[in-house]
Design brief:
This protein is an all-alpha fold. It has 5 helices and no strands.
Length: 115
Amino acid sequence: MRKRATGIAALAAIVAAYVVFRYPLFPLHGMKEFPLYLCILGAILIAFSGIVKGNRILPIAAALGYILGFPAGKLFERSYGEGLNSMWIIWLICFATAVLLGIIVNCLVGRKPTH
């Protein structure tokens, strides 16, 4: 149970962030479906890697990518006319980058020296 605690905490964090981003912060972004789709993707990744496999690095990376991708998207977004902006693209790139870094770090940490 102890090795799955990180996955459970990361899953709780991503769900809590979804609730905050989707409802109270909705006027900031106006997206109904994208936060849910990204949260589902993150939750599946966290559940498999953190809860099923007991990984500690990837669940944290996925949760941080989702949570920190939102303010990064707001900070760097550009508008392209009525209702079109780049926030969702930036959010997705931040999330994907965090997940890829989590996978890389997990692979590097998991390797044992070949002496």
